[in-house]
């Protein structure tokens, strides 16, 4: 536990919030690397639209990582932005799609966003009563991530509202169904 935290929080609560944020930092670092991987590996007729749609997402998610890291430091803890920290905190599998079509990547990315957004909502719940400042930061991030997921899903949705990858449970399965 750190020797200080923000006014109004106990050291124990500050450390708990920082732990939750460290998990989000690792998720954001992984997400921006995954998004860049997709940016580099997308092919097919919709290549340019998806290629150009992904970069603003990369930049915003990198910004989220920075904001979360700075909040961890503000709480008196040390943010860990290393590959080892990502691996240690990872509760998800590494992104599994290589060079593939826009539809395949977007279907897989939809599942990635499902995981990140679900985990963000859990983090919001966990910190909400302890630290409304951190809660507010995570709410803002989650709202934008949900918007990004909507952008992704708009490419995958048919006129009746069904997604091309259906109820796929893995990225590879989602990619295969969307091709």
UniProtKB/TrEMBL annotation:
GO terms for molecular function: DNA binding; ferric iron binding; oxidoreductase activity, acting on metal ions. InterPro entries: DPS_DNA-bd (IPR002177), DPS_DNA-bd_CS (IPR023188), Ferritin-like (IPR012347), Ferritin-like_SF (IPR009078), Ferritin_DPS_dom (IPR008331). Its EC number is 1.16.-.-. SUPFAM superfamilies: Ferritin-like (SSF47240). Gene3D superfamilies: 1.20.1260.10. Keywords: DNA-binding, Oxidoreductase. Residues 21-159 form the Ferritin/DPS domain. It comes from the Bacteria. It is an enzyme of class 1 (oxidoreductase). Belongs to the Dps family. PANTHER family: DNA PROTECTION DURING STARVATION PROTEIN (PTHR42932:SF3), GENERAL STRESS PROTEIN 20U (PTHR42932). This is DNA-binding protein Dps. It comes from Rhodococcus coprophilus. The lineage of its organism: Bacteria, Bacillati, Actinomycetota, Actinomycetes, Mycobacteriales. The gene is dps.
């Amino acid at each position: 536990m750190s020797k200080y935290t923000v006014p109004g929080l106990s050291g124990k609560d500050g450390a708990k919030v920082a732990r939750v944020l460290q998990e989000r930092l690792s998720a954001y670092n992984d997400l921006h690397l995954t998004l860049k991987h997709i940016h580099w590996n997308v092919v097919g007729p919709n290549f340019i639209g998806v290629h150009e749609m992904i970069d603003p997402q990369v930049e915003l998610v990198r910004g989220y990582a920075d904001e979360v890291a700075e909040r961890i430091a503000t709480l008196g803890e040390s943010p860990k932005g290393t590959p080892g920290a990502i691996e240690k905190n990872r509760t998800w599998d590494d992104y599994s799609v290589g060079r593939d079509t826009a539809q395949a990547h977007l279907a897989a990315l939809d599942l990635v966003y499902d995981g990140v957004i679900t985990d963000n909502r859990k983090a919001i719940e966990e910190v909400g009563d302890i630290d409304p400042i951190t809660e507010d930061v995570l709410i803002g991030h989650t709202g934008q991530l949900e918007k990004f997921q909507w952008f992704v899903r708009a490419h995958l949705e048919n006129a009746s509202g069904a997604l091309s990858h259906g109820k796929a449970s893995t990225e590879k399965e989602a990619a295969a169904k969307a091709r």
